[in-house]
Every structure is written in structure tokens, then in C-alpha cells.
Amino acid sequence: MFVNDMIKVIILSIVEGITEFLPISSTGHLILVNHWIEFKGSFANAFDVIIQFGAILSVVCLYWKKLNPFSKRKSMRQKRDTMNLWMKVVTAFIPAVILGLLIGDYLDQLFNPTVVATTLLLGGIAIILLEKRRKFPRINSIQEMTFRTAFIIGIIQCLAMVPGTSRSAATIIGAMLLGANRQVAAEFSFFLAIPTMAGATVYSLMKTGINITSNQWMLLLVGVIVSFIVALAVIAFFMKYIKKKDFKVFGYYRIILGVLILAYFNFMN
To answer: What is the pLDDT, as a whole number, of residue 40?
Structure first.
């Protein structure tokens, strides 16, 4: 049983690492994979949230120099810029905290393949329409982003509470609609993921931590490590990719996957 669960954990962790920072919905993919490999129950639900900690660590690792305001190698101006970045991230995080506390316990009923498929489709269409606008960006660094813009991005992030929407897609699309270029939108999405996913992880542990067995802790450790390694590679790839190409391919992927899911669960299952 433990070996079987370990295989499922590794599969899910690879899926998490690949999908967390791409605008294709990690939660949506995890729900679908959980359904197909039959990894269910209260621990499975907690696992899907907690392994995001590995993805958080990958962002911190890759962007440590940019995120660390206490580096002795930074000038006072660079330290102020880093603190300014964190203040904007915290500002954008506030809406998710408020809404999560208000309605977090009522979202479980949305975690089903039909909702995931629908939001994948709608998000894919939104990405394609956004890329066709071809609007010249006016925000080319996070320093140029206002606190008002950061807060609005945080509000848009709340759409990702509906599974299949994609936190990454919501924040990236929101930032681009508000004038950010692709790279700034993607980086701010990564940084905003740190408090958002850390908060979700702590909340999940508070709800289920006392009921986690030693074997389950081992599964969580493996899951975090695998998702960390995979996410490192995916972020590096993603940032190189968007320097030369747009997000349309992710939009088309979401649409195709959404249609396939709807067809499978409504006509073939």
C-alpha cells in the first residue's frame, strides 16, 4: 500500500511542479489526476495543497538575490527596491486572505471535473483574446507598478479559488491587462505565489496536521522535494520561453484539454 501511494505521490508531485507556474491550472490538473489514479480522501486533499510548498521554495531559490532585502552586497537603493517589491506582494495578497477566510470552507463543492473543464475553456479563450490585443505595455518593471495595480492583481487572483482557473493565469492576465509586460507579469505572479501558497499550506496543516501519520509525513516530504526540483526547471524554461513567444499556446492547450474533459466525463464515462 505504501509503495503504491508513493508512486501516486511522485506522479502528482511531477504534475504540480510542471503546472504550478504555467497558466494552465495546477489545481485543475491535480483534481483530474487524483480522479484517474484514485488518490482520494482527506490526506489526498491536504497533500495537493501542501506539496505547493516545494514550488514556493523553487521561486525563493531562483530569485533569492532579488527577494532578499538584507543582502550585504546590495546598495541602500537596491534594498529599498526589494522592500518595495515585498510591500506590493503583501498588498496583492490581502484580498486572498480576506476572501479565503470568508468563503474558503464553501469551495469544496466546486472541486469537480465539470467545473475544471469549464474554467479551463474560459481561461484559454481569455488568454488568446488578451494576446490578440497587442497593446504596448507601460509597466516594464515591478518598481514601475503602483500599489493600486498590485492590489487589483490581488483581487483578480481570487478568481483562482475556482479550480481550473489557474492562479498563475489569473495574475498574469490581470497584470498584463493592467499594463505589465509578459516578464513582469510572470515574475510578479511567482512572487505573489509565495505568501498565497504558504498561507494555503499552513491552513491545510492546521486542519489536518494532527491526523497525519509518519508514513504520510514521508509521502509529503517526497512530494515537496519532487515538486521543488520539477518547478525549478519549469520556471527557468518558462522565463526563457516568454522572452520570444506569447501565451497563445497555453490558451489553446487549455481549450483542447477542457473539451476533452467535458467529452470524457459527460459522454464516455
So the answer is: 80
